[in-house]
């Protein structure tokens, strides 16, 4: 995936996070902000993100993939989507 | 806290008689002087927390000023055992007890129907005779984020486990919360009738981590053991003469139709370890130091610490009272 399309993916995710989580509008969320650890998203919000990824990007997420490395931040989410989409 | 200090379960030991006398004096002051009421209603579940609160109230106010309530419902996996233990406790303490079966009220509110509809959104075959519970992955065994799955068992014993959608998760929790709210409604009925207050029964772990339903078991006029860690509540209950059958009973949520431990539903660790982790976190003990005492790695303990923080964020809404837009003059 090119750098331009990777940035676009992060922008889409950023917009989704801002639209759905009030804490993201109050804080200055960047691609590297830790979503759960910094209190932007709670466990219910994580379910919402999983549902969004499955609907929007047509990827299936296994339970053991629900880890910080994949879902920790917008940047990590974008990398996760790229990897899953390449499969 | 200095990392040289030895972290052990001894840190949670209390002088039970001293603690009991302190709580009892405060109970008398709150009930008789502050609220000017005649006694206390306690919902008795057959578990350690409500038993300890009932025992403290009986000693503080006299058993004749304590009204115990047993409130079984159709889903409860331990209804009969809980009722028997509740009656045993009431007899031991000499307090009056009334049984209010809340099944019909829950049916009227659509608790079971709404819960089943929410489960069916993710398990379409879920139907009559099926049982269910919601569960979280272990914090200790995996570094997976903790999100709810539903486990359902058919009448033939077939088990299905699937991750919940956001709507199903909210729907199941919203429906089952009727149980705690109907129980609280019944407690306040009896409190109003008797001119009593309602005692809440959370321990410190539950209170701190938001393990209660807002407007349900979270609602009360006073909470006598909210400052005590769960292992301290066990010690105090034993000191107060709560029957051994209750003191030895493992904690359960008794909210879903399948048996469910509190670790599956909420906490990261069994209560005694959770107590020590919470204490350690409250005293800025590095994760590595407390992990050693609990047989956990530093990484596992860090995950428990993060789970505690996350639950505190959620609990802040549960603890919040109604927020006024402007202060009201004349009210203190």
Describe the model:
The complex is a heterodimer of chains A (87) and B (332). By secondary structure, chain A is mainly alpha-helical. Chain A contains five helices and no strands. Chain A has a single domain, classed as ACP-like (Non-ribosomal Peptide Synthetase Peptidyl Carrier Protein, Chain A). In chain A, helix 1 (3-20) packs across helix 5 (74-86). With 332 residues, chain B is an alpha/beta fold. Chain B has three domains: 11-108 and 171-254, HUPs (Rossmann fold); 110-169, no CATH class; 268-317. Chain B has a four-stranded parallel β-sheet, sandwiched between helices. The longest helix of chain B has 29 residues, at 166-194. Chain B is globular and about 55 Å long. The two termini of chain B are 38 Å apart. At the A-B interface, helix 3 of A face helix 6 and helix 13 of B.
């Amino acid at each position: 995936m090119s750098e331009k399309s990777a940035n676009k993916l992060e922008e889409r995710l950023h917009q989704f996070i801002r639209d759905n989580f009030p804490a993201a509008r109050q804080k200055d969320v960047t691609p590297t902000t830790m979503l759960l650890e910094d209190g932007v998203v709670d466990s219910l919000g994580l379910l919402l993100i999983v549902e969004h990824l499955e609907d929007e990007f047509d990827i299936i997420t296994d339970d053991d993939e629900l880890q910080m490395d994949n879902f920790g931040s917008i940047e990590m989410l974008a990398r996760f989507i790229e990897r899953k989409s390449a499969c | 806290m200095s990392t040289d200090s030895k972290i052990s379960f001894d840190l949670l030991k209390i002088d039970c008689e001293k603690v009991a006398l302190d709580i009892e004096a405060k109970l008398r002051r709150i009930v008789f002087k502050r609220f000017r009421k005649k006694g206390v209603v306690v919902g008795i579940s057959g578990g350690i927390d409500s038993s300890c609160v009932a025992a403290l109230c009986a000693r503080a106010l006299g058993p004749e000023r304590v009204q115990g309530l047993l409130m079984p419902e159709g889903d409860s996996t331990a209804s009969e055992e809980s009722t028997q233990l509740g009656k045993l406790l009431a007899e031991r303490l000499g307090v009056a007890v009334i049984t209010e079966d809340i099944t019909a009220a829950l049916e009227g509110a659509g608790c079971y129907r709404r819960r089943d509809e929410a489960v069916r959104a993710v398990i379409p075959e879920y139907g009559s005779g099926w049982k269910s519970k919601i569960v979280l992955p272990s914090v200790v065994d995996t570094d997976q984020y903790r999100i709810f799955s539903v486990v359902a068992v058919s009448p033939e014993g077939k088990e299905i486990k699937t991750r919940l959608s956001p709507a199903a998760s909210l729907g199941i929790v919203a429906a089952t919360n009727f149980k705690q709210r109907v129980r609280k409604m019944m407690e306040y009925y009896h409190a109003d009738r008797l001119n009593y207050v309602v005692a809440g029964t959370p321990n410190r772990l539950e209170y701190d981590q938001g393990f209660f339903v807002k407007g349900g078991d979270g609602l009360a006029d006073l909470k006598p053991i909210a400052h005590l860690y769960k292992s301290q509540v066990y010690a105090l209950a034993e000191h107060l003469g709560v029957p051994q059958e209750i003191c030895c009973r493992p904690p359960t949520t008794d909210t879903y139709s399948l048996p469910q431990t509190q670790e599956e539903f909420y906490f990261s660790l069994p209560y005694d370890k959770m107590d020590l982790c919470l204490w350690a976190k409250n005293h800025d003990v590095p994760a590595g130091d407390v992990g050693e005492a609990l047989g956990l790695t530093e990484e596992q303990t860090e995950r428990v610490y993060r789970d505690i923080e996350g639950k505190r964020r959620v609990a802040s809404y549960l603890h919040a009272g109604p927020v006024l837009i402007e202060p009201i003059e004349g009210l203190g």
